[in-house]
Design brief:
The protein is α+β, with helices and mostly antiparallel strands. It is 20% helix and 28% strand. The chain contains four helices and four strands. A four-stranded antiparallel sheet has the order 1-2-3-4. Strand 1 and strand 2 form a beta hairpin. The N and C termini lie far apart (67 Å).
Length: 163
């Protein structure tokens, strides 16, 4: 008996393996997320590719296989799930996947993933890495000596900057 890598406390054969070998479909967005994580651990990269939303062009099986094989997978934490139940057609799962890379660095992949149900089957649609990259302004910064964006004709420092 071997516990499933997804952290469900079930045996792998009774948990994610039934999705990997296509005996059953993942009934919820969260169960698909867990099965996708387990697929990386168990070198089931074809499953990861087959559960991407049809038409996805940004999945490279060779890169995914290399990443999976070069990593020592440590665990999956489901942070939150919204919607994504059997009756829903979309869902969001926030998760943290911990692993050690080929150079020995401990890494936590923190992502908010979106899932869609198409013809009764859940698919990974897209994900947003949490905490990656700098925060970007929605609008350009106004300099002190530039005209005020309010349209007064005054310099910003003599107008809205004082407010």
């Amino acid at each position: 008996m071997q516990n499933c890598p997804c952290g469900s406390s079930k045996e792998y054969a009774q948990c994610c393996e039934i999705y990997h070998n296509k005996t059953q479909q993942a009934p919820t967005a969260e169960s698909l997320m867990r099965a996708r994580y387990s697929a990386f651990v168990k070198d089931q990269i074809d499953y990861v590719g087959s559960t991407h939303k049809p038409g996805t062009t940004d999945f490279d099986p060779a890169d995914a296989k290399r990443w999976a094989n070069d990593s020592t997978w440590k665990g999956l934490e489901i942070v939150s799930t919204s919607k994504g139940r059997e009756a829903d057609n979309d869902g969001i799962v926030e998760f943290k996947a911990s692993y050690t890379d080929v150079e020995g660095n401990d890494i936590t992949h923190h992502e908010i993933s979106q899932f869609e149900k198409i013809d009764g089957k859940w698919f990974y649609a897209e994900g947003q890495i949490v905490g990656a990259g700098p925060i970007k302004r929605a609008t350009p910064k106004v300099g002190r000596n530039e005209p005020c964006p309010c349209g007064s004709g005054k310099k910003y420092k003599k107008c809205c900057a004082l407010a």
